[in-house]
Amino acid sequence: LLCSSAKDTLVKWWDLDTQHCFKTLVGHRAEVWGMALLSKEKRLITGSGDSELRVWDLTYIQEVKDPDEPESKKSKGSSSPGAEENTEEDETLELDEHPEDRIVKCSKVGSIVREGRDRVVTLGTDRMGKFLACHGTDAVLEVFSVLSEEEIQKKLEKKMKKARKKAKQSSEEEPERNVELSLQEEIQRVTNVKASSKIKSFDLILSPKGELKMVLLLQNNVIELYNLDLSAQVPQAVRVSRVTIGGHRSDVRTLAFSSDNIAILSAAAESVKIWNRSTLQCIRTMECEYALCSLFVPGDRQVIIGTKTGKLQLYDLASGSLIETVDAHDGAVWSIALSPDQHGFVTGGADKCVKFWEFDLVKDESSAQKRLSMKHLRVLQLDEDVLCVRYSPNQKLLAVSLLDCTVKVFYVDTLKFFLSLYGHKLPVLCMDICYDGTLIATGSADRNVKIWGLDFGDCHRSLFAHDDSVMYLQFVPKSHLFFTAGKDSKIKQWDADKFEHIQTLEGHHQEVWCLALSPNGDYVVSASHDKSLRLWERTREPLILEEEREMQREAEYEESVAKEEQPVVAGETQGETGLAGKKTIETIKAAERIMEAIELYREEMAKLKEHNAICKAAGKEVPFPVNPILRAYGNITPSAYVLEVFKKVKSSELEESLLVLPFSYVPDLLRLFNEYIQLGSDVELLCRALLFLLK
Length: 695
What we know:
Oligomer: single chain
Number of domains: 4
Structural class: alpha+beta
GO molecular function: snoRNA binding
WD repeats: 25-66, 245-285, 326-360, 421-462, 463-504, 505-537
CATH architecture of the largest domain: 7 Propeller
Domain Small-subunit processome Utp12: 639-695
Region (Disordered): 66-100
Coiled coil: 146-173
């Protein structure tokens, strides 16, 4: 049996043999978010949108009987009149029962009230079923202990003794009948565990020492382990350890590769981390403000971070310390770009300024040695917020993307205006210039990537790149290939000369915020809203574009097929039930195979008719040419061939294949079904198909 709960406030029971829902449990006023089985699957607990955990008793009626002594035969073989009466009573009972109660019977026992007022997020038990825990959208895990049958029995005996004593004192009789354990006594609250942040998920394990271990995954990407000593008078959960050092506590907004391809910088709202590319280990963690852009200073010994508050922060990697903070912009520093001569860099911010900086050596106050610093040179004032800045490789031009959806190109030496690239419907969030300075590619929130010539500012091609905003774009070094990252959780590679989509890297589950390519072009690292950093490596395996296209077309077709409106089946209540399968390439192919088989059957029958007429006219038997397909199947008849094809359709795809079948083929199929059923072959399969077609 399978039990499922859903947002439709129902719990449904399914028989996996017949693949049907045989029971629906009502009684919840809101969505059922979680459920757990207890007491050797004889009790079901459901968690809903309110603060109640509802408890249901399960009675399994169709239990396996002893094969040596079937009850029905025993009662029929018995000669006593009482036994006959019993069987009659049993039969009437069976008829009166609800048909859905024949397999399992559910009865509500009561409710346990949680302390949390919001919905249940996760409800679960340990493997032994001795402990039950649940949490809502807050940071509290509520833990309950569940008594085993032996413990319940002991408690009942104690209660009985007390009741007997009372009965003796008040001279009452038969106290046994009204002695019962309440639900609160069977499922007792142990304690509440307060985590350091909101809980996402948990798991429990009861150790042999009698300690309950609880591991919690929190919303801020931390894993915490708590121990609960059950032998204590008042059990209190103690945090034993936590896994925090690995990743960031919030989304990574900027990435950078060191010039030797070995170190990767990632920065988020609370910290900057340096990772070793080959071992994937975090080498340094440094606290920072909300980071938006970053770069490695030439020499890879320092890094610069641009923050949301408009500061530039310079860190030394050897000591892991913050050397200098400069108030660079009055708004967020959206973009930073290293100059090709490596003597300085340029920043663009929300204060409508582009600022030019150079690296400088200044005397350190604390020690007599000189240290690296940033010196401000000049400002380019613009009319709109600056979203992205990029140098051309020869350092003659600077491209600036503005909030008015245009990209303006200026001469670096004089800061005079050179070109305006307009055509995007929404602001350009990212851009890059290729290694030879001939092309600039721009990615926008309008989901398009445009490729422009940098000599005249003409748009070579506009590509529909992603299903949501294009968040990052970077050219592969020494080539005209580039990568884009989108909010549709995909990373795509493109050819800027042939304007072709080369491949899609799928792996992230949510929006991809940024990516970085290694200077040798062999690695791509990407960061996403799913809190993961992913590292991609270029392989030596050749990529055949035609195959990629074919796979993409098939995937798109399957998606479009699945999105098509499901056919309405007459007599079926829409919304309540639907076919378990969905229309795919496979179901369409199966339908085509059935159609081909019927076509062959029609042709062969027409040929046979013709052949019989010739034989009649000639008055003698003329040899009949056998179809090569039928010969391959061992000289079977055309009708038997249709059955063979029909039997090869997967059981899960049968209904969908029959729905796709055009009606002109159905009458032939029904005649053939009639023929097969009379022969008694594969009756079950044929009846299933027949009933479905009639429906």
